[in-house]
Amino acid sequence: MYYAVVLLLMLLFPLGSIFAELHIFQSQTDILFLTGKWFVFWAVGIRLQTAGLRQILQPEFTAKEIFGLQHAESTQIVPELGFSNLCVSVLGTITIFNPAWIMPAAITGGLFFGMAGIRHVMSKERGGHEIVAMISDLGIALVMVVYAGMVFLG
């Protein structure tokens, strides 16, 4: 289930939304804008929202499956990560209503995912869930950096 959610929210839903807007709804909107709009909404907004809620409601999953922590005390810290994820997710989610917030959300989300991905890279022992988290975190960070860079260089 974890793998499917990550694949859907970090890749398939953003690409599907771009495709739908261009080919089904015949939008004339620039592909760069659509990339920022939909990757920010799905990856920064909805993905971090689902992660945050899970970390708050089921902290043992993140503690054990992502970070490999077996101590019960570690589940006391994980909800705080969930609160942070929820806060960033609000910024990403509301961009669907206010496009002016796409760039701030892309920068914030890109930094968050980039730093999280680097932390996963530095982890000595990675299980399957952490490898998926690492790849998806670094992938979204790259999308956000490329998007922000192209807009700034524009």
Provide structural commentary:
The chain has helices spanning about 1-25, 30-55, 60-65, 80-95, 100-120, 130-154. With about 150 residues, it is mainly alpha-helical. The chain has one domain. Helix 2 (about 30-55) crosses helix 5 (about 100-120) and helix 5 (about 100-120) packs antiparallel against helix 6 (about 130-154). The longest helix is centred in the N-terminal third of the chain and has 27 residues, at about 30-55. The termini are far apart. The mean pLDDT is about 95.
Number of domains: 1
What sequence of helices (H) and strands (E) makes up the elements? Answer: HHHHHH
What is the radius of gyration? 16 Å
**Sheet having the most strands:** none
Number of strands: 0
- Look at the structure and give the mean pLDDT: 95
Category by helix and strand content: mainly alpha
| Contiguous helical run count | 6
Low-confidence parts, pLDDT < 50 over ≥5 residues? none
Task: Give the percentage of residues in beta strands.
Answer: under 5%
Shape: elongated
